[in-house]
Structures are given as C-alpha cells and as structure tokens.
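Q: Could you fold this chain for me?
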Amino acid sequence: MERLNKLLAQAGIASRRGADDLVHAGRVTINGLVVVEPGTQVDPTTDDVRLDGERVIVRPTRHRYLLLHKPRDVLTTVSDPEGRPTVMDLVPRDLRLFPVGRLDGGSEGLVLMTNDGDLAHHLSHPSFQHAKEYRVKISGTPTEEALRVWREGMWIDDERTAPAEVRIESTTGAGTWLRVVLREGKNRQIRRMTEAFHHRVHRLIRIRLGPITLGDLKPGTWRELTPAEVAALRGDPGAAAELERARGRRADGPRYKP
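A: Sure. Below is the predicted structure, expressed as structure tokens.
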C-alpha cells in the first residue's frame, strides 16, 4: 500500500506537495470515488487511480534531475490556465518533469526540474535549510540602515524575516547590484524587503540553491545535474563539501552575469 500523494509523485505527475493540491481540489478518484485526503492508502496493483479521468500508471522510471535557467516572464508551474509560457515549455515533455519550489514570474535563474517526487518533497520541506543566493538589481543605493535591517531581519506584514546575507556588488547611476543569500522562502521576500525602503527591483536572478550553482548557463537552457550534485541535495556531506571546494576554485563564484 502507498499513500496517494506519494503514488502521484512516483508517477511523475507532480511533487508530493503538488499532488496534495491536486487531491484537495477533488481532481483524483480511486475506483470511481473522489478522494480529498492525500494520505489515503492505495494499492497501485489493484486500485483504479485517475487524475481528471485519466488513469494514473506508475511505471519503473529513471529519475532525471535538470537545472534550468528560467527566463523572466516564464511561470514556474506545470500548466497555466491563461496559456502563458511555463518552465515546461523549456524542457523535454516526455520526461514528465515538474519544478521544485517556486520562482516568481518576474524573476530569473536557477530552477530544479525532476520526476523524483521523494527528492522534491525533501527539498520543499520546511526543514530543508540550504541557502538560496540571488543577484538583485534595485533602484537607487541602499543606506547603511537598510542594509543593517535586511541583515538582522525585519517585520513585513506581521511576519519577521530571518537574517539575510546582503552585500553591495556594484553601484552605478542606473542602480545597485546586490548579492543576497536567504535561508528561508517567504513569498516575494526580497522584493518586499527592498520595497520597504523604497527600492524597486529591476532584476532578480537566483544563482545558487545550496551546493548547486547556475554557472554560465544561458537563459532558456538546461543541463543535467551530476551524480555529485544529486547526492549533495540528498544530504551527502562529502558530496556537498566537494562541490563547495570546486565552487571556491572558480574565480568569482557563479559566473552568469546578464
């Protein structure tokens, strides 16, 4: 017997969290009956599980792990009812991948794509504490007070942010490039932090997720993760340390610069 959400994830339909949403929406049936509890036990060998009327079939699957450089104005979702571009338009459809986590439409950079529901669940869990690093171009130049508040944490809409690592990378008449490292994933956090000090975000590019870096991958293109990168995401300290050493050997960290 398997939990329903795990079965859907194993079928490559969605991450475990995405499968929960599908079940809660009443789109999944077991033996003809709508089920709304993701933890419902199901026997994949005898039960007829369907999503939107289509039979869910779990076949032995080779797990795939892709790093995609998401361009701006592409949605991090499997489908969009309004027909807008999504990350699924940029990767092979036959792999039945789905994105891990979120990166809002106006942002760019690193998005992981996989058909491994268990790893996606692990990476999406609140206990997953890998740092996320961004290059952010804002209007104006932040004051020392703004930098201090961002670094110490601040209140936004009755939520307190965790301390962030923030440093100024460069400043020109057109604005300021920041390097920001977060260890939490509040919705639109960087945009809300900068807007609180009247700085508009012009560019926001995710360049690192834990041990995985964007490197020089161009917008709209992707590459397979290496076995060491997958092992590091799974929590292998040796693999993570080797990737960190390799990253340190590069001249200036992640190489992609717009």
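A (continued): Residues 4 and 40 are 5 Å apart (CA to CA).
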